[in-house]
Amino acid sequence: MTSLTSRIGAELDRLRSSGLHISPRVLEAPQRARTRVAGRDVVNLASNNYLGFSDHPFLKERAEAFVRTWGVGAGAVRTIAGTLSIHEELEEKLAAFKGTGSALVFGSGFTTNQGVLGSLLQEGDLVVSDELNHASIIDGLRLAKATKKVFKHKDMQDLERVLAEHPTDGLKLVVTDGVFSMDGDIAPLDEIVAVARRHGAVTYVDDAHGSGVLGEAGRGTVHHFGFEHDDDVIQIGTLSKAWGVVGGYAAGTHDLRDLLINKARPFLFSTGHPPAVVGALLAAIELVQREPQIMERLWENTRYFKAELRRLGFDTFGSQTPITPVIFGEAAAAFAASRMLLERGVFAVGIGFPTVPKGLARIRNIVTADHTRDDLDLALAAYEFVGRELGVVAG
User: Fold this and answer.
1) Is 134 part of the annotated catalytic residue set?
2) Any domain includes 9
3) Is residue 379 part of a domain?
4) Aminotransferase class I/classII large domain: which residues (predicted)?
5) Residue 334 lies in a domain
6) Most CB within 10 Å of its CB: which of 210, 234, 295, 364?
7) How far apart are CA 67 and CA 59, in angstroms?
8) pLDDT tens digit string along 37-86?
9) Which position among 134, 172, 241, 371 bears the catalytic label?
10) What is the Cα–Cα distance from 113 to 94, expressed in whole angstroms?
11) Is 148 a catalytic residue?
12) CATH assignment of the domain containing 123
């Protein structure tokens, strides 16, 4: 008989021996462009805090005001007694921002995928997923009873082939990230939607890294391609990354919201967001529309950082967004580079197999609106030193 202690120990030993064991770094200061890690003041290139909202005074003020008025918790699941009027206000503002008929907020982006995919898909349906889609999509599809197929990353011929080879009278769903989190590339939604429509399929876009980054005022990848009013395009995403808080959302038709309220298990069995979260999110939606210069700074910083990395000779893997991978090849080199950068005042995390393919280990950098030119120049100087020390760029 296997004991709990032996099972846990064996799994930890397996993770350590395979180089997959994780010990997260701990931030010793707020999530900002400059923070403190391992006793060092560092430039932070590791967070998803695209717009600098995680510690923004306006969001903090609104969160505090909502706590004073509404308390610290919702007190129940949304379908019993946990829906406050502020929850519905947030969802109305989010739907208006996204240009959809409705929106529903979940506890996280991860559970949003589980809830929406599980509610929509039935036996006899077909779902076709990009091979580089996020783990939350993969896990959400594991719970669905539909036939599941994968198409090669952003390969329209392969998507066409898979849809043609698997006809069905059920619902057909093409699932893609809007922005892919490891490579920083954008899904070609104009092409994906066209292929999906030829086969009578609905397009489902996880816009975790596109919302707040792409489209007018950060309305997202779907808006960037002009499909925000189309009923055969479903938007889901997170309220953490660019929005700086926590949660997930599904945006689509009025009936989609009604269905999810009645069927999405993560919604049905989770307590509603605490008022502080709701207040901060309402402030974020207001702020991104009121101050377009925030997104302008994000993209100005992104263009500068990418151009300088390329000038130094680094491979940024064709990234199109503030997600900027720097390729080091083998995992050992990426992890060594991460340690060396930290020693020089830059917090950036190495990523290797199985998160990314073997031979494409990298450090994933995310530039934010909060970074100054001095922050980026310090990081670039550290990268130049590390790249030369490791032989990744010419000395």
Assistant:
1) no
2) no
3) yes
4) 41-381
5) yes
6) 210
7) 12
8) 999 999 999 999 999 999 999 999 999 999 999 999 999 999 999 999 99
9) 241
10) 18
11) no
12) 3.40.640.10
The span from the CA of 365 to the CA of 48, in Å, is 9
Of the candidates 98, 209, 224, 306, the residue annotated as catalytic is: 209
**Which residue among 248, 266, 290 closes a domain?**
290
Q: Which of 47, 102, 129, 181 is an active site residue?
A: 181
- Backbone phi and psi for residue 50, each to the nearest 5 degrees, phi listed first: -50, -45
Q: Are 241 and 300 found together in one domain?
A: no
Smallest Cα–Cα separation from 380: which of 371, 35, 293?
371
Own/partner pairs, 298-302, CB within 8 angstroms, 24+ separation:
298/50, 298/51, 298/213, 298/322, 298/367, 298/368, 298/369, 301/367, 301/368, 301/369, 301/371, 301/376, 302/367
Model pTM greater than 0.70? yes
Assess whether 241 carries a catalytic annotation. yes
Residue 42 within any structural domain of the chain? yes
Residue type present at position 170: G
Tokens standing for residue 107: 């506890």
Sheet harboring 349-351: ordered strands across?
Answer: 323-329, 361-366, 349-351
The letter for the amino acid at 81 is: A
The number of C-alpha atoms within 13 Å of 123 and in the hemisphere containing its C-beta is: 0
In single-letter form, the type of residue at position 68 comes to R
Q: Which of 138, 155, 252 is nearest to 195 (CA)?
A: 155
How confident is the model over 230-254, as pLDDT tens digits?
Answer: 999 999 999 999 999 999 999 999 9
